[in-house]
Amino acid sequence: MIKERTWGWPIASYLFLGGLGGGMLVVSSAADLFLDMGTAFSLGTLVAAVIIGLGSGLLVFDLGRPLYFWRVFSKEKAILTVGAWMLSLAIICGLVYGSTLLVFSPWHGLAGLQAVFAWICLILGVGAAIYTGVFLGTIKARPFWNSPALPILFLISAVSTGLAAHSLLVHFWAFGATESEVTIIARLLHRADIVLLVVEIIILMVYVLIMRYSTTVDTARIAATWLSGSKKVPFWGGMLCLGLVLPIVFYLVPTGATLLLAAVLVLIGGIILRFLVVYTDERVMLPGEEQFLRWLPDRDEAFLSTWEE
Amino acid sequence: MARWAMVIDLRRCIGCQACTIACQMGNDLPPGMFWNLVTTVGPTGSYPALRLYHIPRPCFHCADPPCVPCCPTGASTQRDDGIVIVDQDKCIGCGACIMSCPYGARTRNEKLGVAQKCTFCVDIISQGKEPYCVSTCHQRARIFGDLDDPASEVSQLLVSENTMQLKPELGTDPHVYYIQP
């Protein structure tokens, strides 16, 4: 409590799951609207809604008073309130939309209903994937997040992980699609993911390198921890090589095993990105603060908890 | 209407932490929870030209507080007299305001699960008393008062002394002013 309490793994995991679910909704609704391939994505759409639900559950779990989570709906103008609405609607609309795609559901084939929900899911998917980046980007207390590139990076990563997750699902259970259709869909997903991975590499590198040369020393110092400091291994090795470059290589060598591995690596890359960002939460240091934190006794938390007992 | 503000004279502060303890006692804070840290800068320079000073850090009750618009429940608000408060009955402990405060003024009370911070001791200043940290300061390094009253000591000090705010470039306009050492 002497050290500031900051966000940890539940929020990082939520950022990944929320982005993944949103990205999957975007992919399936876009495939339905523009390529007429909706039926093959029915399972993925339902899974997307469940994933967003899981992520929202983590958000509630991280609250100080989880039982009162419904109060987030009580204010109009906060980004988090808008986000909470989008997440809730994305879960509901995702489930409804996914059910319209299932061939055995009674309302399957109602073209109007399906198209309306496809558009709604497209918008909500983008919203759920991007609002977290917008929120982190508006926090000027944390210099590394305070950038317009962060929401874009989150959105690209969300759609890219969404494509990867869909390609895995299509592989294992492509509902109502023939084998040749599955091959075509999978190839399409892989190609689209290659494009997005390249774009993501560009945005990520530009983001970190420009932050490295930011106007304020704090921002530059924090960005340097990614490039050459304490986070260089997860950044260069994990995020860039494992999560972005290797999947492109594997996608370009299309055998069954490499394609599966590529999709899994894309998902891992999405997780690493969210954890890197959430744990790069250094505040602008105030005079004397570094020394104060250095002087704090070791294991004071343990002492305090014993004291309270 | 008043606009409460504080001037802290860094030439007088000796870093004794009495204000930190008075705040904890008066506001009944659990052990390990602080609303008012005192950090030390230095010693810098080389002997005999050494320099060391202390910065007490309450909530700055900014004119444009970043912790208010980010709150999704409306628990974090600013009163008309400038004091930023957290409504304990509305807060759900999401941490948005804790992350948004550039000055690290907020902490989460893990027992209650809500965000808390320095309140300028709202309940006792309404009785005409001074906040605990001010009344306990034996060096008179802290001066509390109303900026809307030109005759108040804080208004006078802002005119006569060379005061500064912490990180004014963030545009938050803190209402705790420091007289530089």
Description:
The complex is a heterodimer of chains A (309) and B (181). Chain A has a single domain, classed as Up-down Bundle (Formate dehydrogenase/DMSO reductase fold). Chain A has 11 helices and no strands. The relative contact order of chain A is 0.13. In chain A, helix 1 (9-35) runs antiparallel to helix 4 (111-138), helix 3 (79-101) runs antiparallel to helix 4 and helix 5 runs antiparallel to helix 9. The radius of gyration of chain A is 21 Å and the shape is globular. By secondary structure, chain A is an all-alpha fold. By secondary structure, chain B is an alpha+beta fold. Chain B has one domain (4-179): Alpha-Beta Plaits (2-Layer Sandwich), CATH 3.30.70. Chain B has 5 helices and 10 strands. Chain B has helices spanning 18-26, 96-100, 122-125, 132-136, 153-160; strands at 4-9, 37-44, 51-57, 76-78, 84-86, 107-109, 114-116, 142-146, 163-164, 176-179. In chain B, the strands form 4 sheets. Chain B has a 4-stranded mixed beta sheet. Chain B has a two-stranded antiparallel ribbon with strand order 2-3. Chain B is globular and about 50 Å long. The two termini of chain B are 32 Å apart. The model of chain B has no long low-confidence stretch (mean pLDDT 93).
β content of chain A, as a range?
under 5%
Tell me the name of the CATH homologous superfamily of chain A: Formate dehydrogenase/DMSO reductase domain
Derived structural class of chain A:
mainly alpha
Proportion of residues in extended strands of chain B: 15-25%
Assembly annotation? heterodimer
Mean pLDDT of chain B, as a whole number?
Answer: 93
Identify low-pLDDT runs of chain A: none
